[in-house]
Amino acid sequence: QRRIWLDCDPGHDDATAILLAVHVPGVKLLGISTVHGNASAENTNNNAARCLYAFAAPEDIKIHPGATKPLIRPTRHDPEIHGIDGLGGVEGLPPGTYGDVQERLDHTGRPPKAIDAIARAIEDTWKDGSGDKVTVISSGPMTNIALFVSVYPELLDGIEEFVFMGGGVGIGNRSSSAEFNILCDPEAAQIVLDVPVKKIMIPLNVTHTAIVTQETLHRLLSPGTSYSPGSAPAKASTKLRHMLWTLIWYFAESYKSTFGFMHGPPLHDALTIAYVSSPEMFKCKRYRVDVELSGTHTAGETVVDIWSYRDCNDSWGRDGKNCIVVESLDVASFFQLFLECVSRCDAV
Ligand code: BDR
Ligand code: CA
């Protein structure tokens, strides 16, 4: 079983990443930390707890609050895509104040904040004699991760790999050239790209292929029944499926009105967990990746050196290629895995 830590900013697609992190085979979720991003840090923290409760996660998985703002730049949220509280339009989630949701927050003494909780998880795993390491996953701005690698450099060897949803190869979504997670905190992303840990970037080019189509929605709502194009959506067969349907519906409307996506929304963040559980679904290549930190029009752009212009030895004595970039996904297998996780969650 691969041990994972998820740092996220829920967020509709982050919520689907949490569902997978809890229910995907071959993975043990050690904990979750939250960061500013799609909504305020307070909202993303609450939302993660609401999701853990709704997805029937084991009670020992706790949520740890992290950075409330980027390292240098002004804070930005994305109510146009995710609603004011980050999970706009999602029906069937309890409020953050609900007692059982509050239980998901770590109340032991003074709860460790994100970076200390990540450190503890790595220490407990790596130093337990098994030689196991932790895969750290990021589905939001990388502020927490940049702080973690800066404060705890001695624990970098305890990280198996760092998998993140972010950036694009020649495309952006929240500026002409930058993707939201990187745009929120470009300096943090560059700090992380510079650390000598294996890194896997899942860019927009690939996440935009993971579209929830009408057929997938049908399989979500009425598993085991056949789909005929154009038919009206069935009523969800369980509360969980209804919740996920409202989540996807809201996200679809955002993507339609903001980006003109007419066939459904992309489940960006869920791909990080799918990558850890089923890497064979993905095709990847190693490149030099840096973040534009000073461009007048391009701040936050991920500069992926596909022609190897900057392919020189770096300070760790390796060639300059610092990041594995995912280039394609077996979309059908991904949605099969997603629906299997829904069924597993339903069965708890
Ligand atoms: C990323 O930004 C947010 O809208 C999503 O949660 C995802 O992590 C996509 O650019
Ligand atoms: Ca996210």
Automatic annotation (TrEMBL):
One Pfam family in the UniProt entry: IU_nuc_hydro
Stated name of the protein: Inosine/uridine-preferring nucleoside hydrolase
SUPFAM superfamilies: Nucleoside hydrolase
Gene Ontology cellular-component terms listed: cytosol
UniProt keywords, alphabetically: Glycosidase, Hydrolase
One BP annotation, GO: purine nucleoside catabolic process
Gene3D superfamilies: Ribonucleoside hydrolase-like
The UniProt record lists the keyword Ligase: no
Family: Belongs to the IUNH family.
Keyword Hydrolase attached: yes
An annotated Gene Ontology molecular function: purine nucleosidase activity
Domain Inosine/uridine-preferring nucleoside hydrolase: start-end pairs: 4-336
Domain of life from the UniProt record: Eukaryota
